[in-house]
Amino acid sequence: MTELVVGIGARRDVTEDELAHLLDAALTGLDGTVRALATVAGKDGEPAIMAVAAARGWPIVSYPAGELATVAVPNPSAAVLGAFGTPSVAEAAALYGGRGELIVPKLTSPMAAVAVARHPSHDLRHHGDREATAGLVDLAVNVRAGARPAWLTARVQDSLGELESYPDGRVAREAIAARHGRDPGEVLLTAGAAEAFVLLARVLDPRGAVVVHPQFTEPEAALRAAGHKVERVVLRERDGFRLDPALIPATADLVMIGNPTNPTSVLHPSARVAELARAGRTLVVDEAFADTVPGESGSLSSRRDLPGLVVVRSLTKTWGLAGLRIGYVLADPRLIAELAEAQPLWPVSAPALAAAEACASPLAVATADEFATALADDREHLLKLLGTLDGVTVAGLPSSSFVLVKVTDGRTVRDRLRASGYAVRRGDTFPGLGPDWLRVAVRDRDTSTAFTAALARALAPAAGITSDDDEQPKGSR
Hints:
Elements: E1 3-10, H1 16-27, E2 33-40, H2 47-56, E3 60-63, H3 65-68, H4 78-84, H5 89-95, E4 101-108, E5 112-119, E6 137-139, H6 150-159, H7 170-179, E7 187-190, H8 192-203, E8 209-213, H9 218-225, E9 230-234, E10 254-258, H10 270-274, E11 282-286, E12 309-314, E13 327-330, H11 333-342, H12 350-359, H13 362-386, E14 393-394, E15 402-406, H14 410-419, E16 422-426, E17 437-441, H15 445-459
Parallel strand pairs: 1-2, 2-3, 6-16, 8-9, 8-10, 10-11, 11-12
Antiparallel strand pairs: 1-5, 4-5, 7-13, 12-13, 14-15, 15-17, 16-17
Helix pairs in contact: 1-2, 6-12, 7-12, 8-9, 8-11, 13-15, 14-15
């Protein structure tokens, strides 16, 4: 699907009618879906721009003038440069992100200008394991590397003797409930967190669904596959990709957000996320990486007082169980019952149930916290190494098992890393990010040291390497 971005520049006293006529002229005969109306920071709150965006159901995005000034535009204006700090607000805003093609150069009226760019749609079903091909050091997938504890491996192996019986999830559900101080009726076991998002999309019927990006793309993909319209709220790089609750429309009756967020590794304060909960709204918090944070600070998994709260958890990341597919949902019993009705019979296998029970034990909780503490040390080592490299910017304040970095010509850098034996996760399939963003998993210190040396070489001027974006498709984070 082709996505269009409409760039707009306007004087303060422009009327809604004038903007509407200009937009109609620019979009006549174009195929594609308008992804956003884009403008310069400070203009996104002006009444006429807000009115035309609301009337057409378009989200508004804005960028600092200094960032727009870096975008090459075909029709620069000295007057616009003097007034706004960028040579064309409309064209630069439409093109911002580096992957757009200007298909309607700016059209002007006495008080405004509009331009339209075509952007490739984000591949919401692209995940890290498409890049972690055999023979490469895997920094693209966020599953913890290293041996699982012997007690966990033994429990899964023992469950193989129970395969002649249909799986019964009651004991595992009770263990998960006890781990979070909840009733078993508030727990639904799922075949990984991804199934939870599909079930939510099937059961819920939102009139105003909002997904906060950049984040794991399966929640939006599931909503769209179920026929729901989705509005994106894109957190800003200049804000460290931190959540501002004021960005969420009051009309949203479904909000989905990750915490800590994949791919930014930002941990939003639990109180700030809790501000999003309100009567008449379902708040879905993806906590797949909550146990990568010491003490699980930021988690809302034990909160039973917040209206409409749904917490989705995964056991595949910290415990290295991606192939086993096990996760769960924590929510009000009425919603849990509806989600269970939408599940097929026996959705979780006996080995996965055994793992769920084992990973909910006090020993497992303590072990996960030890892993998280060691991870924080390894992450700090990686961040210090990245800080020595010119041309590398780390996003936000990383708090999980991965970091997000920005480099110049990210596609070429990623390909050079592959040629050096390292797979990293491309960032441009996440709404809100462009091709210069790369997600890097935190590994042991020796691996991080070797990787940053390879990254330093990849950043150096050199002949380009052919891109390889067509690895075999699977599904992971």
